Fold:
Amino acid sequence: DIQMTQSPSSLSASVGDRVTITCRASQSISRYLNWYQQKPGKAPKLLIHAASSLQSGVPSRFSGIGSGTDFALTISTLQPEDFATYYCQQSFTTPRTFGQGTKLEIK
Amino acid sequence: QVQLQQWGAGLSKPSETLSLTCAVYGGSFTGYYWSWIRQPPGKGLEWIGEIIHSGSTNYNPSLKSRVTISVDTSKNQFSLKLSSVTAADTAVYYCARRFPPYSNIGLRSYFDYWGQGTLVTVSS
Structure:
């Protein structure tokens, strides 16, 4: 299985901050990397697919970059509704695997 | 608008079989792979497996010996059965659609619609 490792596991930030979450794959996955946002008690929501393609309806303050084994999700200007847990997921092969999550908390 | 609505027993006893069903409303059922994904309390996400309308399946090898995913195209529903459950199977179980359609390998695929989640607790 391809292991996905996110860092940091948790992050404290303030409204208006710029934050970056990274995701590393245990082998090259080209650009087959997706990002999801999950709020407590809710299903994950797709933010970005294919490393950098913004899903329809997702605010432009979210962006993704990367290829091969190293990827990043950036939120340019944090809004109150962005405090949540973020997961990366590889779609290069089965089993489809997720990172362990990064919990973004209010400072 | 695509909606996934799932249901099933919220409590299973150890060694029994967990059973959940997901119904798809809106959009096309045919051509898409429909997945089950689980999340133990306070932990990350684990892909369980998927099925397409023809009945072809892909399973996570770590669960393959205990998992059966089936489909009922007449009702636009698919189901999960997980046998011989233990406390380690306690989790919120989600159903989800994998986009795009007709993508067996799924290189550029992603989960775009999700069910509401069902907490299944395994306890005697």
